[in-house]
Design goal:
Layout (H helix, E strand, L loop, with lengths): L1 H7 L3 E4 L4 E5 L10 H4 L7 E4 L21 H14 L5 E6 L1 H12 L4 E7 L6
Parallel strand pairs: 2-3, 2-4, 4-5
Antiparallel strand pairs: 1-3
Length: 125
C-alpha cells in the first residue's frame, strides 16, 4: 500500500523535523506551488508534498472520475497517505479546494491531524 500511495500522488518528503506538515495544493496546479514556502519550515518540520490525483506528476492512470467527482475521493487519498506513512499529529496546510479536502479528511479521521491551516478555502460549504 505504501508504494501505491506514494506513486499515485507523487509524494515527496523534505525537511528534518519530527512533526509532519502536509502541504496540499489547489486545483489547477501541483506541489510546486509550495516550492518557496516549504523552505521556511524544513528546520522544524518534515514537509510532505503531494500531487492530487489527476494533477502534476500523479499517476494519471489511477484517476477515476466516479471517485474524484466529489471532494471525498481526494480526502480519502489524504487519509490513505497518512495511513501508508504512519502519520499522526499532522499539521495540514491546504490551499483553495484542498483546504476543504483537508477538512473532510480531518472530520473522518481527526486522530491524524493536530492543526489545519486553511488558505483561501473554497468552495464554501
Amino acid at each position: 500500500m505504501v508504494n501505491d500511495v506514494l506513486n499515485r500522488n507523487n509524494v515527496n518528503v523534505v525537511g528534518n523535523g519530527v512533526q509532519v506538515m502536509l502541504f496540499a495544493h489547489g486545483f489547477g496546479c501541483d506541489q510546486n506551488a509550495w516550492k518557496f514556502v516549504t523552505e521556511a519550515f524544513t528546520d522544524v518540520y518534515k514537509g510532505e508534498l503531494f500531487d492530487n490525483t489527476g494533477s502534476g506528476k500523479s499517476d494519471i492512470s489511477l484517476y477515476n472520475s466516479d471517485k474524484y467527482s466529489k471532494l471525498d475521493g481526494y480526502a480519502q487519498d489524504v487519509i490513505e497517505s497518512c495511513q501508508a506513512l504512519n502519520l499522526d499529529n499532522v499539521v495540514f496546510v491546504g490551499h483553495s479546494v484542498s483546504s476543504m479536502i483537508g477538512l473532510l479528511a480531518a472530520f473522518e479521521k481527526p486522530e491524524y491531524f493536530s492543526k489545519l491551516v486553511l488558505l483561501v478555502p473554497h468552495p464554501v460549504i
